[in-house]
Amino acid sequence: MFNIRKATPEDALGISIVNVYTWKTTYTGVLPDEVIDKRIDELLDRAKDKSAEIEKEDNFIVATFDNTIIGFCNYGKSRDEAFLASGEINALYILKGFQHMGLGKKLFDAATMKLSQRGYTSVIINCLQGNPALQFYKHMGGEIVSSRKDEFNGKIITADILYFTI
Q1: Is pLDDT above 90 for 165?
Q2: What sign results for the dihedral spanned by CA atoms 98, 124, 40, 25?
Q3: 33 Cβ neighbours under 8 A, 6+ residues apart
Q4: Is the dihedral of CA 6, 35, 29, 160 positive or negative?
Q5: Which of 71, 102, 66 is nearest to 89 (CA)?
Q6: pLDDT tens for residues 104-151?
Q7: Which of 43, 48, 57, 140 is most buried by a 10 A CB count?
Q8: Which domains does the chain carry?
Q9: How many CB atoms lie within 10 A of CB 32?
Q10: Where are the alpha helices (DSSP H) in the chain?
């Protein structure tokens, strides 16, 4: 049975495993292998950091199947200076075998509802070029309004910035 709920600190390892696995299946060939491998090597440290963040902030929602985390969404205020009045969905990941079942929409809707309750009327998402989730975000009503470039181990990566009115 699928369930969407607020994350607890005990969910941090499951969230971290989903994050690392989805980076491996989504970003291989898009990001340098060393960047992805480093996330795998740092799994336990990432889980500890996420546990502390969940305890401090109310900013994670998880999707579960039979009480096992299969997806998550992380949200909060925008980190982009051009969109300081917006909320931001920082991460929305679902394990490959559970995609296309409506869970992404449920996580997206839950996060935008939380952001709306915090007073935000718009949300941004950074989506790496080459990420197939771009079509999902467009389907959810996102419009590409800008892009940003980041460097990962000497490779320049471009992300599209999608804007949503909520």
Answers
A1: yes
A2: positive
A3: none
A4: positive
A5: 71
A6: 999 999 999 999 999 999 999 999 999 999 999 999 999 999 999 999
A7: 140
A8: 2-165 (3.40.630.30)
A9: 15
A10: 12-27, 33-41, 43-56, 103-117, 133-139
Answer whether 127's CB lies under 8 Å from 108's CB.
Answer: no
Cα torsion for 72, 151, 29, 33, to the nearest 10°?
Answer: -80
How many Å apart are CA 103 and CA 125, to the nearest integer? 17
Cβ contact 146:162 at 8 Å:
no
Question: What pTM value is reported for the model?
Answer: 0.96
Query: Residue holding tokens 């499951």?
Result: 14
Q: Please choose, from the candidates 92, 64, 63, 65, the residue with its C-alpha nearest in 3D space to the C-alpha of residue 76.
A: 92
Which residue type occupies 96? K
Q: Say how far apart CA 128 and CA 116 lie, in whole Å.
A: 25
Decide if pLDDT at 152 tops 90: no
CA-to-CA dists, residue 6 to 38, 63, 74, 92, angstroms: 28, 9, 10, 14
